[in-house]
Specification:
The complex is a heterodimer of chains A (67) and B (414).
Chain A: E1 2-5, H1 15-19, E2 24-26, E3 32-34, H2 45-54, E4 60-63
Antiparallel strand pairs in A: 1-4, 2-3
Chain B: E1 2-3, E2 9-10, H1 30-45, E3 50-53, E4 59-62, H2 65-73, E5 78-79, H3 108-120, H4 122-125, H5 129-142, E6 152-154, H6 156-160, H7 162-172, H8 179-191, H9 197-220, H10 226-232, E7 234-235, E8 238-239, H11 242-255, H12 257-273, H13 275-283, H14 288-298, E9 304-308, E10 312-314, E11 317-319, E12 324-327, H15 329-332, H16 367-384, E13 388-390, E14 397-398, E15 406-408, E16 410-413
Parallel strand pairs in B: 4-12
Antiparallel strand pairs in B: 1-2, 3-4, 5-9, 6-16, 7-8, 9-12, 10-11, 13-16, 14-15
Helix pairs in contact in B: 5-7, 5-16, 7-12, 9-11, 10-11, 12-16
The chains are: A alpha+beta (67), B alpha+beta (414).
Bound molecules: protoporphyrin IX containing FE and iron/sulfur cluster.
Chain lengths: 67, 414
């Protein structure tokens, strides 16, 4: 599984960072970024899905096939 | 009728009660905030995705998540130059607007916003938790002796309303003893919207005069606070204009108070008459994060507004230049298209894409702080009073206008 973040859409609600700090970080302006290359370890797949489902701006996408 | 120079002919004074919410919606009618979720449900059932009224010179209210999102994202056809619907709007010069960045449009908006983002980023806000907790405990201590089953306290007046005022006063470096004054300013800006332009203007002049005094004090004696930060920060190699500094300080003072107070109050209101949720939250504190997001979804306190920039057709609605458009994020949050059991409060709801803090470029700058204050306020109230109930449901008084929350909330401590 790969998690991706569209930084054009992200407005820094920080839901992803709150729900899955292992996968997302925030910069000094509060904008989110994916940690590393976005590949999600098996035990964090649920957290990745939660982050996707809670992003108010639909900025996070999950690619199940990849990784 | 008087004209305020923004193209609207305005009837003075207060409009009468609403009889037809689809064709004559008015969020300032006290009935609106009292029963908003029912009104949205009725309008949805009647197949009305966009309500309208001729009041305020013409106003539209999209009610679905999709339509609210569309307006919020479309800064070309909908401007933020005025975000509070009023019969007496005074428009400041574009692109800065009266209170940057909330009254600014692109491209200036981004510049003004970037300046304020760093002090409100999560890692800057997290360290405030201990201080907010101490403040909540002090307010609870100040309530004094409580006789279980008898003592009635006002959770809005004695608790919720003071938390955001003190926090923002500390962040801005303003005297804490002025908090009563701040609440008056907030009232003038957000609730006194159906008054004569001169009255509204006088309110803003009082506010500006107060802020100018505080700014002057910070110019002479700089400190480690947000006001000094704004005086010091540079935009394109230049210090901010005095109007910009004042506008941003005004915004921070106004934007964080009523809103957070309302969110805390509504959450406690819910817990006061849903003992099953209250007991579950006390027994399973690990549910607090989802519960807080659910309170924000179901009782989102903030409806914003935009002005139409050009005549156009919006999904069959013929919108005219200078019409108002409400952005009822609270209604979007109860759209059954996006949420299962949209009108139920589900404190362990895992998937919650709510829009309480807005959508698009104006996303609430204070959202990290607001979430912190709300969570700590609920945690501390429950820790002190695990049992409480509404003393008299009819004695609960809701705010009027675009910020929705209980202003009187008498609860009996169990
Ligand atoms: C639960 C409490 C709060 C809620 C529900 C809330 C909600 C909102 C919403 C919906 C917007 C979007 C406005 C728009 O689209 O025009 C907004 C903007 C804003 N809020 Fe909040 N707010 C809260 C607390 C705070 C606090 C505590 C602060 C700061 C101390 C704050 C500062 C701001 C600022 C500066 C903006 C303007 C951002 C911009 O235009 O880029 N808010 N808020
Ligand atoms: S939840 Fe969405 S909008 Fe918010 S920071 Fe994460 S990606 Fe950005």
């Amino acid at each position: 599984m790969i998690v991706r973040l569209d930084s054009e859409k992200c407005q820094g609600h920080n839901r992803c960072y709150a729900l899955a700090p292992e996968l997302f970080d925030v910069d000094d302006l509060g904008q989110a970024l994916v940690i590393g290359d976005g590949s999600v370890p098996l035990d964090l797949e649920d957290k990745a899905r939660l982050a996707e489902a809670n992003c108010p701006e639909f900025a996070i996408t999950i690619d199940d096939a990849a990784g | 009728m008087t004209s305020t120079g923004d193209g609207h002919a305005q009837p003075a004074g207060i409009y009468g009660p609403v009889e037809d919410w689809a064709n004559d919606i008015d969020h300032v009618d006290p009935a609106y905030n009292r029963r908003a979720p029912e009104i949205w449900a009725e309008l949805r059932a009647a197949g009305c995705p966009v309500a309208h009224t001729d009041r305020y010179g013409g106003m539209w209210a999209p009610l679905t998540h999709e339509l609210v999102r569309e307006v919020a994202y479309d800064t070309e056809r909908f401007t933020s130059r005025a975000v509070v619907v009023s019969t007496s709007t005074i428009l400041a010069e574009a692109p800065i607007g009266g209170a940057p960045p909330i009254t600014s449009d692109p491209p200036f908006h981004q510049l003004a916003r970037r300046l304020l983002l760093p002090p409100f980023a999560p890692k800057q806000i997290e360290p405030w938790e201990a201080e907010v907790r101490v403040l909540c405990r002090q307010l609870l201590d100040a309530i004094g002796e409580v006789v279980p089953g008898e003592t009635v306290i006002d959770a809005a007046v004695q608790y919720a309303q003071d938390i955001p005022v003190v926090v923002i006063a500390r962040m801005l470096g303003f005297p804490l003893e002025d908090s009563e004054l701040f609440r008056g300013f907030v009232h003038d800006a957000l609730e006194s919207v159906n008054v004569e332009p001169a009255v509204r203007e006088a309110g803003f002049q009082r506010l500006d005069a107060y802020i100018d005094g505080q700014i002057a004090d910070h110019v002479t004696t700089p400190r480690d606070d947000l006001t000094s930060y704004l005086l010091d920060v540079e935009l394109d190699g230049q210090k901010l204009s005095p109007e910009h500094v004042r506008g941003s300080v005004v915004l921070l003072l106004i934007a964080g108070i009523d809103t957070t107070w309302s969110a805390i109050g509504s959450s406690l209101w819910h817990l006061a008459h849903h003992p099953e949720d209250r007991r579950r939250l006390v027994a399973e504190p690990e549910l607090m994060p989802t519960a807080i997001e659910e309170f924000l979804r179901a009782y989102a306190p903030v409806t914003m507004a935009r002005l139409v920039t050009k005549d156009h057709d919006f999904h069959g609605c013929s919108m005219k230049t200078d019409d108002w458009v409400l952005l009822p994020f609270p209604a979007a949050n109860r759209d059954p298209e996006l949420f299962d059991r949209a009108d139920e409060v589900v404190i362990d709801r895992a998937e919650n894409r709510h829009a309480a803090f807005g959508l698009g470029i104006h996303r609430c700058l204070g959202s990290n702080l607001a979430r912190l204050e709300l969570r700590v306020a609920v945690e501390e109230f429950l820790a002190r009073f695990p049992e409480f109930e509404l003393a008299d449901p009819d004695a609960v008084v809701w705010s009027t206008g675009q910020i929705r929350g209980p202003r009187r909330l008498p609860v009996r401590i169990g």
